[in-house]
User: Fold Lipoprotein from Parapedobacter defluvii.
Amino acid sequence: MSTTTKLAFLTGIFTVLIVVMACEKQSMIGSPEAESLLLERLHDEIDSLAAAYPCDDVTNWRFTPIGEKPCGGPAGYIAYSAEMDTAGFLNKVELYTERQRAYNIKWNAVSDCMFLTPPSRIVCEEGKAKLVRDTEATAE
Assistant:
């Protein structure tokens, strides 16, 4: 599938999701469940964008924090291909993070407050990028 075809396909999916989210938002505004569902759908869209590119050369992959825990710090990390529209992708990740931050404040969300360390590296497994955290014992 060519890059142009992928982009057209993803743009179509994005447009449909916006329309669906707008319709659902009209009927479900004001509940934590409804807002959580919207966040989940945006996260799924971000995952789909990242998964649209096969991981066959790890040097073409990066990662970025995504989301925000109620106590602060990233909720997770996501790998993405440097071959995609990285500015658009990172803007969408930032939008998700801002919306999750607002959700946490609005609904007084709680979490484990554990700091999530960034991945050490990315590996390609079966065509998919996998984030790896190397564990090293440190003497203190």
